[in-house]
Amino acid sequence: MRIALLGGSFNPPHLGHVLATAQVLSLREPDELWWVPALRHPFGKALAPYEARVAMAALAIAPLGPRVKVSRAEAEAPSARGTTVELLRHLIAAHPGHRFLWIAGADILLERDRWESFDEVTRLAELVVVNRAGFPETPGAGAPLSAISSTEIRERLARGESVEGLVPAAVGRYLREHSTYR
User: Fold this and answer.
1) What CATH class does 2-147 carry?
2) What are the two backbone dihedrals, phi and then psi, of residue 24, each rounded to the nearest 5 degrees?
């Protein structure tokens, strides 16, 4: 089974994540695509509670159908330090019959020198780049997606501003009902 993985903090999940998922499903046709919320951020950034981000991720992917799932693999990994290479090692050991694809935005690729064992990541999983507006394009990776950012969304929420049109409606309701990021 070919499984595409979209790892991230999903702090909060937004329409850019949803659009990237739809694009990879359409262009690469994996059997499944798993959103993998980070248990902790590998670069030490503050995150909303893990369970809140998992819940919001599930709400965001619900309209995408049964091939898209939320994985708790980060919480299940033995050391759970939040690195991609560690996550891939864990998933390969847990699912030896699966082949993994790792989805990375063009913006994230610019930080690959900060990743632990980036070369090993690309040996363990096929790298799938998603072009993002404002960053160098990778040929064949599809049209650039919007530069929506979780940071901008958190800042808007902290100021009491609307995030309508930036997050899926169900995530927006969750954010309002739980006062997340205020």
Assistant:
1) alpha beta
2) -65, -40
Residues 80, 113: Cα–Cα separation, whole Å: 20
Quick one: tokens of 124? Answer: 């363990």
Report the distance separating Cα 60 and Cα 18, nearest Å: 7
Sign of CA dihedral 32, 15, 37, 104: positive
How far is the C-alpha of 77 from the C-alpha of 7, rounded, in Å? Answer: 14
Residue labelled with tokens 């995530």 = 171
CB-side neighbour CA atoms (13 Å) of 128: 23
Q: Give me the half-sphere count of Cα atoms (radius 13 Å) on the Cβ side of residue 115.
A: 17
d(CA 42, CA 114): 10
CA distance 39 to 145: 26
- Model pLDDT for residues 5-18, shown as the tens digit of each residue: 999 999 999 999 99
pTM of this structure: 0.91
